[in-house]
Amino acid sequence: MAEKFDCHYCRDPLQGKKYVQKDGHHCCLKCFDKFCANTCVECRKPIGADSKEVHYKNRYWHDTCFRCSKCLHPLANETFMAKDNKILCNKCTTREDSPKCKGCFKPIVAGDQNVEYKGTVWHKDCFTCSNCKQVIGTGSFFPKGEDFYCVTCHETKFAKHCVKCNKAITSGGITYQDQPWHAECFVCVTCSKKLAGQRFTAVEDQYYCVDCYKNFVAKKCAGCKNPITGFGKGSSVVAYEGQSWHDYCFHCKKCSVNLANKRFVFHQEQVYCPDCAKKL
Asked: Could you tell me which residue ranges the LIM zinc-binding domain spans (predicted)?
């Protein structure tokens, strides 16, 4: 059975009718106007699905309602200036009405390219890096107090630098023992596997993944001959006269009692409990 194609709100069938898709739901034009449409700030009526909409700073107008607040000239397809929440055309904008550029303190008139940040406005060419003085314009920047920095100057002046490549860490960095790294630089010295979020071992300022540490660095247990990794089972180690054992491998050669953290006798490269040692 075919799924019903109805309006999400009134449940009227939509087959063969105009409809609007909103937030993943289908609705008829009547319900769109009633429940979904933005309200025009000028006429206070819904901006229907068949109407053209103009929006500016989270406010919405019918295109025919978007006019100069002084002369009522239509502005939907023209440059305009906003002053005290009023929309003004070029002719009705006086120098006194125009906001002042934070950089040069001259008026920003309708049609001028500008940059606005937290209620302050600049001519596009006046919005410059506080360090190198190059124009930031509409490019990316970093605010620092009352100053603004281009990406390059911010990296040079403020960003942490990776201890391996000495380049700035702009995102995705990690810290190990109070030292900053790029995630892609913090890798196993043998196989270059990324170590961020993984188990690893540090040996003389070199970092190894678990597999490479086992295969190339770890000491071999004198009992089972397998690597002593310090991970998982057998993380405790017994060391004696240059040899090492997993704690579970350190047992009496004769009776097999475990001798980790117990008294033992070392005889001819073998480990014995005191009782078995007396019988040698």
From this structure: 38-98, 99-160, 161-218, 219-280
Rounded distance between C-alpha atoms, residue 38 and residue 40, angstroms: 7
Residue 210: phi, psi to the nearest 5? Answer: -60, -45
Token pair of 254 as six digits? 């004769």
Q: What SS3 class is residue 123? A: strand
pLDDT band for 1, please (50, 70, 90 cuts). very low
Asked if residue 140 lies in contact with residue 165, where contact means CB atoms within 8 angstroms, the answer is: no
Q: Which of the pair, 99 or 125, is modelled with greater confidence? A: 125
Report how far residue 14's alpha carbon sits from residue 128's, in angstroms, rounded to the nearest whole number. 54
* Residue 2 falls in which region: left (phi positive, over 0), alpha (psi -120 to 50) or beta: beta
* Structure tokens given for 39: 């309200």
Overall average pLDDT of the 227-252 stretch: 80
Per the rule left: phi > 0, alpha: psi between -120 and 50, beta: everything else, 201 is beta
Residue 232's pLDDT is 62
Q: Which residue type sits at 138? A: T
Residue 110: is its pLDDT beyond 70? Answer: no
Residue at token pair 């937290």: 118
Token digits of residue 253: 């050669």
For residue 157, give the 3-state DSSP assignment. helix
Q: Which residues contact 167 (CB under 8 A, 6 or more apart)?
A: 161, 182
| Cα 110 from chain centre | 37
- Looking at the predicted structure, is the pLDDT value of residue 8 above 70? yes
Quote the tokens at residue 55. 């929006």
